[in-house]
Amino acid sequence: MIEEPESFSKTTFEERQVGRIQSPVVLALLGLLAGGGLFFVGYMALRDRTPPLAAAALEAGRRQWEKAAIASYDLTLTVAIDREAPKDYQLSVRGGKVASFQINGVAHAENPSYSVPGLFDILEREIEMAGGKGARAAGAPQNAVLRAEFDPRYGYPKVFKRLAPGQQSCFIEVKRFAAAEAKER
Length: 185
Fold this sequence. Notes:
By secondary structure, the protein is α+β, with helices and mostly antiparallel strands. The chain has 2 domains: 11-47; 55-179, no CATH class. The protein has helices at residues 13-46, 55-68, 116-131, and strands at 73-81, 87-94, 97-103, 106-108, 145-150, 157-163, 170-179. A 7-stranded antiparallel β-sheet has the order 4-3-2-1-7-6-5, with helices on one face. Helix 2 (55-68) packs antiparallel against helix 3. It is elongated.
């Protein structure tokens, strides 16, 4: 018969496995904590700080724009609709009317929808569609979250976001605004 040395541990197989089971559990918990921490940091860094769009903010921006009485300006904005490539729109407005309109540098027929008053109209329609008053318009996004930011000096919409499921999201951002004339009242 072979004798075991006294220094040899007399623990059972089950007793040795307890230590091994705890190590993976501890590692898994540490991994979850680290992953959760990274998620939290990423969320805080990337979260959307654009304020929710409210009718009162829209009207305040519109009043501020009307008070500034800017009839001539140049505007460059980016429009992105879901999976389409973003498009750059350039407008020149003179005397309150669109004088030139380009999409990605290519001239198009004048389109007042993307002038500043046109942007206010777009946001107003978005609020109406999201409000669910009456029958929902055909093609209107369901469960849309609307966000907008207005220029602090002139009140025009700087950023508009419609976040909606089902490929119905939209993003409009004014990249450049240059007033050709500004009359403060």
